[in-house]
Amino acid sequence: MSTTPPRYAYLGPVGTFTEQALRSLPGTDEAELRPCATVTVALDEVREGEADFAVVPIENSVEGSVPVTLDELATGHPLMITREITVPVAFSLLVRPGTTTEAVKRVGTHPHAAAQTREWIARNLPGAEVVHASSTAAAAAALAGSGEVAWDAAVSAPLAAEHYGLDVLASGIGDNAEAVTRFVLVTRPGPPPPPTGRDKTSLVAFMREDHPGALLEILEQLTTRGVNMTRIESRPTGHALGDYCFSIDAEGHVADRRVGEALMGLHRICADVRFLGSYERHDGKAPSIRPGTSDEEFAAAHEWLAALRRGTP
User: Is residue 207 predicted with pLDDT exceeding 60?
Assistant: First the structure.
């Protein structure tokens, strides 16, 4: 009996780093891959049932977080992150067959890629003008097309050369050899993957009102329970000036007592808390559990309180 292959939406076009991240997932060889023009479209395909999963970029080690992904996950019909993937950012300079370095006067690429290859282009293509495109793959696709194009070369992912039949004039041209981009696998809400002991939890906390110490109150719910944050960023909600929410990544799984109690604390003091998922960290790093914050110690404290309430301390 045949089964329908899973459908993956991703930030396209074909040949992006997002596609590279998607293809690193097990079981995607037979899957239906659906390139989308924007992060919003990719996530909406999941919300509307047109795709089972979406892979979108969320953070770059050089350029920081991807605001549109943070905002889309914070609003609209809820979605859940079930996995994170990291991809080394290794750019290539792609040209039409037969193009020489001397012929490259204009280079097309995405603004983030332009920022991460600025020094290399200045050294190796002095005087070349950089033109911004909607994505690195879009720059490669335009270069490979039959019509007029505004650039002679494209800075793109190596995967794009194969897709679009372009030559690689230079590879590994990024200014930072350690640069990586983090992607997330998103699906409709459901039970999170089981805890592994090497997990991360993502959430969005909405302030009840703007007042002195509002952020501190949010942080205290995590720190007093020994939950370490790996990322926190404020994002405007779009409702009014000064109305912000906080996008947070923290160590641990929602099944962990310390994380669960921190979420309950946030639920008490915030206007809303959107749980975005608990999933295994890409680096497999286990958190350091502070004394007094292990599951066993939380359970013992609950039992102690229950005994007091029963009158049997």
Answer: yes
